[in-house]
Design a protein that fits this description.
- It comes from Elysia marginata.
- By secondary structure, this protein is an alpha+beta fold.
- Helices cover 25% and strands 26% of the residues.
- Strand 22, helix 8 and strand 23 form a beta-alpha-beta unit.
- Helix 10 packs parallel to helix 11.
- It is globular.
Length: 671
Amino acid sequence: MSPPHTIDDKAYDDSVPIAVQAQESKRRKRRILKVSVYCMFGIIAMGVFVIWLFHKDSKESLRFGNLFLFTVKLRRLEVKNVHGEGVLYGDMGRRLLATPYDHCWHDDYKDYEENCLQWFDTAKLHVEQYFPRNDSNRGSCYSLRWVGLSEKFVAEDCFYLQRFRWYGVLTDKTPVWPIESVHLEDLTEYYDEYPSVQNENLVPIWYGSQGVTIFVDSGFPFTVSWNVTKKRQFCISTMLTYDPDRPTRDLLRYHVCQADSIKEVYQVAQKHRKDLDTDFPAHGEKHELLRLPIHALSKYSDLEELVEQINKNESSCSLFEIYDNWENESYGDLDVNQQLLSKLSKLDMVDNSSCRPILPISTFFSYSSELFQEGVRHGFFVRDQQNLVTRLILWREREGAVLDVTNPDAAEWFLGHVRRLKTQLNVKAFKMLHLNIPPDSSYHDLNMTHLDYTRIFHRDLGTLEGVSLVLERATGFIPLPVYTPIRTRFYGKSGSKCLNTSVPYTLIMGLSGYPLLIADADLMTNPTTAMFMRWLQLAVFFPVLEIPNLPLLKNKTMQNFLREILDLRMSELLPHLEKIWRKEPTLPILRPLLWEWPDDVHAQAVGDQFMVGDSLLVAPVLCEDTTVRSVYLPEGTWVGYRNTNEIHSPGQYYKFSVEDFTVIPFFWRLN
């Protein structure tokens, strides 16, 4: 039974009036309701904000699959690999001021362009993804174009170098393999002159060890800076300004490609570049590999000496490069002088396929040449800003004019003379001599720039059948095979002479799309016996061997050494080179070690060795007085030349004695 209630068991507080307690209860309920309503509206507002945020991000970003993201508000570019790792970051339009933006309006389609953003009345950025056709490689390329809408806009994009190694040409005084300890301000003067005062091969392409490449269209004026801030950035800037007469022209245009490794990104980028060159026919045209050594002749007496040696059976007939001043009176005659014709007739070139000339030609016509007036009369030459042939070019200490290769009539006129020379001399190859053309020259094609001259010159000569083409200087990209000299030169280093730049420039030229490289000895003057022997041991591994005509080659000891080098080339190296060229004509023949071992940090840094294909490693002796050569052998099993002992390397350095000049450090890879 429940206990009886007492006086203390009240259900109310009798000290407070009942009406007051009821009123307080109502207020409490209203407060609870008000808080509930506030919470509900807060949740709704948060949901609306989240939805807006997602909508905002999708509208303010350009996204291509999962690999490319451009955040509009921050103008931040992020490129990822297939594993979702960020491999490249960039600040786009770094000098672009804050201004309203939206997608670009296309008048023809009466709609907004999906992959184009416009900062009103200031600039446009077009982004286009490239999808390789029939491509088994994983990777992608993106083309980026800035269009200026105001004179206040200067296009400049900066990419973070991060922890990765980078490779490419900045100046002829900075390292290229890899680019290390380099701090360069805006290279306006350097690229403003490119290639008007060009002394080396120069291709605007840069590779990162993470499998990224950035390259600029070869005909596009630009400048770069490197590592000028604490953020370690590589910046590309326009050299063009807003032109009210051409309001839609691009101020800056370049491409970014990404893949799993340098090997794969090279292949993706090459396919992209070839697809861009729509005016080049027959991209897949196959060129033969020049088997015979080239005798480089610098003057008429060299030819006389060569003919005499052949007649005495002291030298075998081979390809020979004729000296530059072979024309009748002056540059531009395009007519062989009689003295040269007489001497060439003794070589019986018509019936002897192995004894054929390589003829240097240029598009320069001096004042005194017979064809100068004809070219002026028909408007075949490059003109100045007043549309007159008064911007004379000084070339080889002569003044004259330069052929306008963009004029179809001028190109056909020139090719007619070249075809005549080809038949008259039974020419095996033409060597295209480099010209320095003023940047402000005008052409038949208004879109032409001096940066693209060599490329168009090559395109025209590429229509000739049965001949190969050799460049004196490479400028920009050429989608057809062409033989390209690497100017191997000696520099003073620690009291001796060294070929310390030859291998790095060779590696970057191979990755620039020039597989058919020649070790050029044009700059070799009065070398010592030791220097020349070391040079030969490097040059013999190149796809084409060029032998300079030097007095020391008359020495019997040197002749015997040269004969041994040529025997090695014919017996072992040339079959390997030809196999690579037949099997992989789109790939570099001479390759960096990181081509095969991309994740090996030591291979990424090696700039004094190279691979010939994927199975032959070469470690040339680069200094004349070297007695010991340190060689890095990546992981694998190797066997050396004249040494059958196998080396099972885990990936480490080895030292070899090279005091004996018959020792050439190269190794075959067994697995």
